[in-house]
Amino acid sequence: GNCKKSPNSASPCASVMKLADWKDVGTVYFQDKFPLLLKSTIKCEYGGVDVTITDSAQRNVIEKIDTTGAPVPSVVKTEPYKCTHCEEEITSEFLRKTIGAKKLSSKQAEIIDLFLPYLNKYRKNFGLDTCLRKAHFLSQIGVESANFTTFSEYENYSNPPGIFSSSLIQINSTIVSSLKDNLTSIFKIIDAKGEVIIKTNDELKTLLLKDKPSIVDKELYAAYKGEKDSKDKKKYNDKLIKEILKTDKTVDYKIYLKSHSHFGIPLMSRAYAPYVGDKRGLGNGDELTRDGWKFKGRGLKQLTGRGNYLNFTNYRNKNTFTDDTSGQIDFTAEKDGSQLKGNYLKISDDAMYATQSALYFWNDGTKKNKKFAKEHADNDDIELVIKCVNEYDGKDGKNNRRANFKRARKEGVFDINRHYKLMLENGDDKQKEEAKNYLEKQKNNGDEEATKILEEEEKKNPTKKEEVKSKKK
């Protein structure tokens, strides 16, 4: 304009003004649309108003910031999506549906009421903090606890584990010593006239070691019905196992195996005793130490073996269980002066320790492919979870575990597809990718619900490939 203070007032003031040097105002960290980049000032030499000239540019995304001497905007952290259902407590209704029971029996309700408060109290700190982990864990302990009916392994096996077989073996001192209090219930001696010869346990022990009959060991320890009658299939008879002859080759007496019930302590002691080629690594002593019975399956997981009881002891002493004020306990310790009494009984007698021992094994028990059961649950690998929890379970037991998980992952229980659907809708990029991969896997396995979720997501967010196709059209 025309500056009245300039002697050259008829001409633009700028004609007599001198442009100062351009100055760099510093590194730009503003979020303005056109931040200031350079500045220069034209000073009026006649006391008029100074003119400031600036140079600006459009903002670009900042790739690297040198924070020296410059204000840095605070970075807003985005938390990954958290499924609200993962936070939900486990209910008895979830347990009922997992095992496929129409209604819980009074025994089941009693057992569940004992351990469920502890399970919910501990679950967040001990690996039961996602829908998938809860579904896998409960599918396993449902089988381990005989559908939530016991904290102690049943002993009435028809086909007991371990060294037992269906083949004939010669009776030996370990067998007769283990069964020494039960021999009169197992064997009977008949003379040449068909009369019973009464014998005590000690007398039978001596006779059996002298005559060495061949027997099928499981028929001595487990419940035995007898031998089927050749004429009447509904009838069972005592089984002849050896005929003892006199020097003149006539019959002196016969040894028979009688029908009888199972003998729990000897049976479990033999079942979990070590043998040649045993790969179980239970850490037990031989049959006569009774370690097999002391450290039989106890607790929700049916923790088995002296070695595992010791490992649980160490784990519990290093990890804090909420509100447990009972202090350190050695669960392998025996009670002085009392046979078959020790701290191992606490795991089957007390729901708190029954629950803690199961959580120990879930987090830190057996490893398969360098991972514990909890980690295989994260990968949704039911087969490796089974191997970690009970590799030696029979065919029926393993099938029951698979069936439990199939029910547990469904809608109305832990609804695993819902978990991944919500993650797909609300998660960050990494979570969305994880959810999509899981649902694709289920789709390939014939899961109609997973297929539907993916189809709905595709409609909302078409892939780039589809977008390109639509543009060409």
Molecular structure report:
By secondary structure, the chain is of the alpha+beta class. It is 39% helix and 9% strand. It has three domains: 57 residues, no CATH class; 187 residues, Lysozyme, CATH 1.10.530; 100 residues, no CATH class. It contains 19 helices and eleven strands. It has a four-stranded antiparallel beta sheet with strand order 6-5-11-10. A hairpin with a 5-residue loop joins strand 10 and strand 11. The relative contact order is 0.10. InterPro entries: DUF4280 (IPR025460), Lysozyme-like_dom_sf (IPR023346). It comes from Flavobacterium araucananum.
Give the arrangement of secondary structure elements.
Layout (H helix, E strand, L loop, with lengths): L22 E2 L11 E7 L8 E6 L35 H8 L6 H17 L8 H14 L24 E2 L2 H6 L4 H4 E5 L4 E2 L3 H11 L2 E2 L1 H5 L5 E2 L7 E2 L1 E7 L5 E7 L6 H8 L19 H4 L11 H13 L27 H4 L1 H14 L8 H6 L3 H9 L4 H14 L7 H11 L2 H16 L3 H13 L3 H9 L1
Antiparallel strand pairs: 1-2, 2-3, 4-7, 5-6, 5-11, 8-9, 10-11
* Elements, N to C (H/E): EEEHHHEHHEEHEHEEEEHHHHHHHHHHHH
Give the helix proportion (percent range): 25-40%
Structural class assignment: alpha+beta
| Backbone shape | elongated
Strand content: 5-15%
- Rg (CA only): 39 Å
Uncertain residue ranges: 29-33
**Count of helix runs:** 19
Largest sheet: 4 strands, antiparallel
What's the rounded overall pLDDT mean?
A: 89
CATH architectural label of the largest domain: Orthogonal Bundle
User: How many discrete domains?
Assistant: 3
Q: What is the strand arrangement across the widest sheet?
A: 6-5-11-10
Distance between the termini: 59 Å
Got a strand count? 11
Name of the CATH class of the largest domain? Mainly Alpha
CATH topology of the largest domain: Lysozyme
Oligomer: single chain
